[in-house]
Amino acid sequence: MTDPGREPAAIDRAFIRQALDFGARGQGTTWPNPCVGALVTQATPDGPVIVARGHTQPGGRPHGEANAFDRAGPNAAAGGTLYVTLEPCSHRTIRAATPCVERTILAGVRRVVCAMADPNPLFRGLGFALLRAAGIAVTTGVLEDQAQRIHRGHVLRVTQGRPMVTFKIARTADGYAGGPGGSRLAVSCPAAGGWVHLQRAHHDAIMLGIGSVLADDPLLTVRLPGMAARSPIRIVLDSQLRLPLSSQLVKTAAEVPVWVIATEAAPVERELELVAAGVEVMRVSAGADGHLDLAEALHLLGTRGLTRIFSEGGPTVAEKLALAGLLDEVIVSTSPNALGQPGIIAVRPPLAALLADGDVYARVETGFIGRDRFEHFTRTG
């Protein structure tokens, strides 16, 4: 029988937490849509049981709720409860004839428990109102803080027109990301390196500055067993189109897309060469320093549907993003090994000051992956 000590609120939190975890599996594959997690449960004498799980599918369709109902099959959801991480969509689009609100009503569920409302002010609360009008009980705001964080990329794209940006950098015990003269360092342990590849797979794109490309000639793909297909778009911030045609990025542009963002003043001849090699070139305005306008670049990427960007662009790009209020998550990993001589500082004083300012960033997680210590900061201001 159901444990009388377990309140419905605790059960709701437990199922929403499972929906959040299940939905997060699809991150990096569903843009321009958010990756919504959904569970369908039915009551039994021993308590509620899950009859189906779903999350938004690659390309953004079907949505999480529809995927869960499809998995449940005919009549399995009738009389049950739908747990979902984001307010079910209530509007019709060309791509989807049946909004998730209609699917929910047609499925016959008696109750919906949702983590957060739609961030779009045009539709916020409409899905809940339609469900209640159909006689379905609705509970909202369950683990909302966690849902807001998981759906942050979607929220920012809807409310600010730009994707969420996460910056990750590895440093030695004495604080360096590169060796003397910018020489490359193998800083991360194997376990931490594998974790980075997993983060790449969970983002829509990887972004870095041209300086890092020229110094390291990176490939920026996901090189975990069986996950090559999860390699995201690779974006280079390259004001003057200095990306070499001989770079690994250009050579593999036909396999994994490469987008280059330049200023309007960048040479047209270089653009034509890169386009001929399979690279897509986009242009934005230049800032006061002559480099591309980062805010404009991110808004451009937002119009392309990107919601989550993983920046491996080095200290300079990170500092500029943070100072502009455009850096949402910062992950710093520290190796136990020291460089022992001056090198490229991983977290320069301006970014370090922002991370230490509780009104701007909060440290939300610390721990170890392998031998490397991780600190995770999230922007609060």
How would you sum up this structure, described in words?
- With 381 residues, the chain is α/β, with parallel strands linked by helices.
- The chain has 2 domains: 8-154, Cytidine Deaminase, domain 2 (3-Layer(aba) Sandwich), CATH 3.40.140.10; 161-379, Dihydrofolate Reductase, subunit A.
- It has helices at 8-24, 64-72, 100-107, 126-133, 144-150, 152-160, 190-201, 210-216, 248-251, 268-276, 294-303, 314-323, 349-356; strands spanning 37-42, 49-55, 81-84, 111-114, 137-139, 164-171, 176-178, 205-209, 233-237, 258-263, 280-284, 308-311, 329-334, 344-345, 361-369, 372-379.
- The strands form 3 sheets. The chain has a 9-stranded mixed beta sheet with strand order 11-10-9-8-12-6-13-16-15, with helices on both faces. The chain has a 5-stranded mixed beta sheet with strand order 2-1-3-4-5, with helices on both faces.
- Strand 15 and strand 16 form a beta hairpin.
